[in-house]
Design goal:
Blueprint: E1 18-23, E2 32-39, E3 53-60, E4 62-67, E5 73-78, E6 82-85, E7 91-94, E8 101-108
Antiparallel strand pairs: 1-2, 2-8, 3-6, 3-8, 4-5, 4-7
Length: 114
């Protein structure tokens, strides 16, 4: 019998203070990837950029996002905020609060808009 459930991957910890799940949706020929991750108080992600479009939903907590290292724009973010990162623009999140910060990220591999 077929079910709609997908087996969760093992949680990954790419750096101290970070943890999450990477769902390899592209392996199922979907035009997107899904990452659900947490940033501990005082921790941050590495500043990075890539050729794909990326969307973030802040699902819990608050922090700061650094966007586009050339112009170094800084934005306070909180639960419920939705962000879009253009291709090749660097971005980083810093948890400068005393509570966990949780983010759902969608990487868009498809053509056209998402």
């Amino acid at each position: 019998m077929s079910t709609p459930f997908v087996t969760l991957p093992a949680p990954a910890s790419p750096a101290e203070g970070l943890s999450g799940f990477v769902f390899p949706m592209h392996e199922k020929e979907a035009p997107f990837g899904l990452i659900i991750f947490s940033v501990a108080p005082g921790a941050c992600t590495e500043a990075h950029g890539h050729e794909i479009k990326e969307y973030w939903l802040i699902t819990e907590g608050k922090g700061q996002v650094i966007y586009d290292s050339q112009s170094f724009q800084s934005f306070d973010v909180k639960e419920g905020d939705f962000l879009y990162f253009e291709p090749h623009k660097t971005h980083q999140v810093i948890n400068n609060s005393d509570a966990i910060l949780k983010i759902t990220s969608i990487d868009w591999y498809g053509t056209g808009t998402a």
